[in-house]
Amino acid sequence: MARKLRSLILFVAMICCSAKGAEPAWPNTGDPWSLAHYQHTSFTKKEGAPFPDKVVETADGYLWADNGKGVSRFDGQRFQPFEPFPGEALGGKDANNLFAPKAGGLWMAHASGGASFIKNGHVSVYGKEQGFDSILAALFFEDRRGDVIAYTAPGFMKFSGGKWVKFIAEDDSERGYVARDADFNVWKVTKTGRLHVLRENTRKFVDTGVDVSGALMVWPGPDHTIFVGFGTAKIKRFEDNNGTVSEVGRPLPFLGLRVLVDSNKLVWVSTANDGVHFLGALDKLPRDDAPLPVDEKLNHANGLTGNFSYVYEDSHGTIWVATDGGIDRFMPSPFSQVALPFGTMMATLQPNAMDDVWLGSENLPVRRLTQHASVETSVPPAALMMYRDDANAVFAVTSKQLWQLEPGPPKVIADLPVTGTGRVLSMTHRPDGEFWLAFRPKKFGLTRLREGQWLPIDGFPAISALFTDKQGVTWAGNKNLLTAFEQNQPRTYSAKDGLAAGVIKVIVANDGTLWIGGDENLQMFDGRTFTSLTLAGGRKISEVSGLVFDNGGNLWVQAIDGIFRVEREEVRKAVAAHSYTPRYRFFDSLDGVPGEPAQIFSLPTMRRGAGGRLWISGQTSAAWINTLVLPKPLPLRTPIVEQLFDGTTSYDLNVQTVALPKTARDLQFAYTTPELRFPERLRFQYRLRGLDDTWQDAGTERKATYHALSAGDYRFEVRSRNKDDDEWNGPVASLAFVIAPKYYETLWFKALEAAAALLVLWAVIRVQVRIGMYRERNKMRIRANEREAVARDLHDTLLQSNQAVVLQLAAMANRLDDPVLKGQLTALAELSQDVAAEGRDKVQALRVETDDASDELKRIVELGNRLSAEHQVAFDARVNGQRRQLRKDAGAELVAIVNELMINAFRHAKGSKVDVGFDFGRRRLEVLVADDGIGISSATLAIGSPAGHWGLQGVRERAAAIQAEIAFEQASPKGTKIRIAIPARRIYAE
């Protein structure tokens, strides 16, 4: 407490929140405001909260508070003591008069003089060397240009060019307590008990002529109001009327530490010993000697964390109270809580035409709630069914009777045919004056009251919801059954007609469409088709207990998890196009929606009142909302990457790219989105560019961890949204960093690795090629040896024997006298001689193919030359184009083909010349074998080879094996041309 009371004796002043220009939470509705309009949350030591003298919100959305050792910041979820970077420190442990300029950062004054400034995690300290001359804690504010001003013991200083510069000095007798108003005038209560003002753009305080002897503090408010606090537990109110300052109204009886008039012009007073007092609207405070309105008080005895308090409003209209026991948050809510009698169970509300509300319950008599009173009636407990008809008459069903609550005093209409709490689930009053009630016992079920008689309607034993539309049609619903009674003629719809609402709990009509809410679905019915309503993002609504169209045609649906609001235009689109998924706004308990609604009794749990209000009931609580003036949804702030930690070091993030050492491979990122209203609704996604471009869902988690990262450039990105949003369309925060490489991750090392790998690959390939060449040569050598063996065998056996036959035939022919027989033997000898010659040519060709397959052309030419010499026929070989190495297998086949064609030409053409040509083209190798002999008959070409010969047939088969094209042509004037074309990919080795 001693630390707290220093604010009364040190040179301290409080700044009006109008200096920050907080926006109103919502427009003034004309409804009286009270603390029932706020959601109160306490933060104590258990939640990590300090016990501060003051709190302030910085431009990035954090709430800052002094903690006795410095300052802590709060992002809505957690309190974190501020830890300066190594080598930096605050100018003192005490942090007084926290101030957050619009440009960002946080100023604080120190009791011993000097100031500190925090921005982007760094601390700058200002003392006499930096021009900050003060012997006590300074007060900060901004002028219209956004320049930061400090009021200290010597006078006023302005922060300019990184230094503090004095611009208004004052002597000791003029010193006092100052605060700036919304018009940038500075007000001061002096030691001599005078109220002074420094008008904007002037350099001298002016005495207003008002005596404020004993004053301790001054707090300017809106509408030219000035509050002055005195040590005698009173606060006086003054008005500045064109320079004339005069006192208005009675003094407020509080020992005030601050008077705050918030952005809705509601008055809050924080005190030194009695918590916070809420006085309501500023313009409702009497200007004359009339009594002050009764204030609402919150102190430690009724829920505040402490009695010593400082009140502050943030940029979104939330009220914060710093106390000696923690921090309290009062968040404006569109829902105003209804004060129910203690012990109320199964609350049932029915507003009337004047927007008073009738309250029934399971255990208490019916009450009538007005703006200023709660009046108990003679209507007994168990009024769990209430109803207002189109004539604004209000009715209630208790455990034994049907009552009319208004107009006039409450009266009994009829005794029920069956008694007991909760016997009636629903009711309606038809245009013909009949009351229809849905009883729970199957004996009665749907029953009507006509001329004082209860008449069951047969065939409808279990009805859960009743509704009569403007055409006089009564609708009765149950589980996937809906019956329309038009002129008392029922028509029932079921699941086979598309009805899928489940147990129907509420039915309403709007613009010709019937809306059915059940425990499984919310459906529309246009008279022909039932359509289930699916909201944006694929969200369905179930467990519907309330269904209302407000005065503006907007749809409100209460379900077990909260309330959905769909704007009129979205409703129209959904009705016009059944596949349309309308956008919506969702409210839940965080917004002030009462507790879980009833599911069987007290239905519907949401009802329309007068003046745009909706009344909502939970089972033991209730609230109302003015649908005409709702707070606008506020966009989320940009996420912030708070920390990059590698297990040993936390790095400075206030740089364009964070440089990490080569050992930083396991990294942890801490991030957040400052959200002081609904941090529970935040959801996050993050990704690490350079590793993975896919967003990772983090849920509510605010940390991301990566392990075993490689060296290189990265960018960490994070984004957030509210859990009920259907798109990630908010801003993205990013942090660029680079991890230095280890020696084996450097470019030069990778280049050496690549070179070594290429060298090894080259060596492996070279070895494999040599092995392949060795194997190929070995195969060629084996084949050549086999050919030579075949040639020797042919020469030593067949050819030698054939030669002996030739000689014997010749000898026999010489001994014969018969000329005919002699001629036949001679012809036979010549034929055998020809066969022997052809055999020698073939043997010669076999012997030419040796194990050296590297020069196929040379082998062909050598064979041609031998054949030329043997047969006395000219031979010519030519080569066109750049000669290329041939593939082994294809080259061997080509040699065999050309050899066969040359042998045939030399042996059978009977010409004087044989030519062989090779044309090495880019796409193909073309070979020409030509002679000037007798040619080849068309019959021979047709059958492939002469009878008993297989040479040409073998040529064709070999050509097909290497995908070669072969063509036979008659040369002019005589001879034969044979053209062979082989694709490059099949014949060339490279």
UniProtKB/TrEMBL annotation:
A single GO cellular-component term on record: membrane
Domain of life: Bacteria
PANTHER family documented for this protein: NITRATE/NITRITE SENSOR PROTEIN NARX-RELATED, SENSORY TRANSDUCTION HISTIDINE KINASE
Annotated keywords: Kinase, Signal, Transferase, Two-component regulatory system
Histidine kinase/HSP90-like ATPase domain ranges (all copies): 889-986
GO-annotated molecular function: phosphorelay sensor kinase activity; protein dimerization activity
Leader peptide range in chain numbering: 1-21
Protein name: Histidine kinase/HSP90-like ATPase domain-containing protein
